Amino acid sequence: MPAQGKHRRSPSTSLGRTLAAVTTGGAVLALPVIGATSAFAAPAAAAAPQAVAPAAVAAPVNSVAKAAPTKHSVVAGETLSKIAREYSVSGGWKKLYEGNRKIVGSNPDLIHPGIKLVIASSSDGKAAKASPSAERGTSADRADRSERINAAPVAQAAEQKAITYTNDLDGWIRESLAVMAEHGIPGTYEGIHRNIMRESSGNPAAINNWDSNAAKGTPSKGLLQVIDPTFQAYHVPGTSTDSYDPVANITAACNYAADRYGSIDNVFGAY
Is-above-0.85 flag for pTM? Predict the structure, then answer.
């Protein structure tokens, strides 16, 4: 019988020891013993918790750009351009002026404290008041607000004083100048006074019954000797329709002089 051959046992890549039996009361537990060269898949890791998307948070409301009132009360120092910028009026000061021409008058450069302007809606349906700091800086806006607040009482007091006029030539001229300013009619106190003294010597009831106008049935009347057709054509809204009324007579005459001569200040004789 041939000798039993000896074979070298090749290194095993399997488990060194596959099982170790442990008995406990007859039960056999099979416990794997991991060999040095064995590779096993690691037990599946617990699934990483999915990131929960945060609930949608409503965008914060811009505390500056908010729905503005439908009307803006003008304070001293403001202009149509400035107000249009503050409220982001589409079309700028021209659009703002178009919507408020009746209250502003014929001169958009002249707006009086206390009048209320209607603010047109912006594209989103609301008149949004833009952030002043976006245009000129917070500190500058504070200074501007402070200036307006400090100036407001003075302007209001001045306005209240200005609306009380004496019932004499000085008061009539000053009241006429205020009306003229509202309507953009040029003229100065000196120019008006000089022409009144030449035409009527300051008598509001003066009438010329002897010149060519009188011969045509339209005598010159009042402080600045205006004939009825001229008075009616150049009458300024808001004043009396009586051509003898001192303020109405002055403003109509100055309106006519502005149209024909550029200003009552340019009149130095019969006009």
Answer: no
